[in-house]
Amino acid sequence: MALIFIRTAIIFITLLFVMRLMGKSQIGEMQAFEFVISLVIAELACIPMADSSIPLLYGVIAIVAIFVLHQIVVILDLLFKPAKTAICGKPSVVINKNGIDEYQLKKNNLDVSDLIESMRVAGYFSLDDVYYGLYEANGSFSALENPERSSSSLSLLLIESGKTNKKNLTACGIGQDSLDKFLKEQKTKLKEVVAMTVNGDGRVYFQKRGEKYRILDMEVRGEW
């Protein structure tokens, strides 16, 4: 029992030392390769702690080896820009002056719902609350705020990539006939709509594929 405690303490001190050497990003938002390294280190640490038949030195050497590999990747990251892009990726601008960039969303395996969720976490509740929105290489969301943002209530997503959200339509008190009429007025087919949201005041964010988004009005009867 005492032997397991001592082995665990040694591994813990080694891990603490190595993680501190790796820098603050290891305890903040990590790049992809840093996340992988953290997972591997955790697995390497568990084996010698739990199995006393494995020499403790094996676990320490494996952890130090991972640290050395980490430093090599960091040096490549700093010295060679192409290596930095290949290892860490690059930011993706998903909202620009024209609205949502559908290509960049799909490239990052995201959809409009994911984007709206990220915006809410960042404190933005309407798609036009920002001039530019981007996902950083580490996956965090950054935005250049629209100084004229006018969100007065939560916006609900009615159409996403040509598909309606029936639950949100019901919550807004908008029937399918009313939606079809609205789309006809905009001379747009359902499958051509990238995103359509509406808030409690009937303020609509409407973006047709290949066109800049528009802010329109629509009568809503629901409460949310």
Could you give the distance between the termini?
Answer: 58 Å
Helix content: 40-55%
Shape: elongated
Q: Percent of residues in beta strands?
A: 15-25%
Give the number of helices.
8
Major beta sheet, specifics? 5 strands, antiparallel
Strand order of the largest sheet: 6-5-7-8-9
How many extended strands?
9
The radius of gyration computed from the alpha-carbon positions, rounded to a whole number of angstroms, is 25 Å
| Pattern of helices and strands | HHHHEEHHEEEEHHEEE
Overall mean pLDDT: 83
Unreliable runs: 24-28
Structural class, by secondary structure, is alpha+beta
Offer a concise description of the structure.
The protein is α+β, with helices and mostly antiparallel strands. About 45% of the residues lie in helices and about 20% in strands. The protein contains eight helices and nine strands.
Question: Mind explaining what this structure looks like?
Answer:
By secondary structure, the chain is of the alpha+beta class. The protein has eight helices and nine strands. The strands form two sheets. A five-stranded antiparallel beta sheet has the order 6-5-7-8-9. It has a four-stranded antiparallel beta sheet with strand order 2-1-3-4. A hairpin with a 4-residue loop joins β7 and β8. α1 runs antiparallel to α2, α1 runs parallel beside α3 and α2 packs antiparallel against α3. The longest helix is centred in the N-terminal third of the chain and has 24 residues. It is elongated. The N and C termini lie far apart (58 Å).
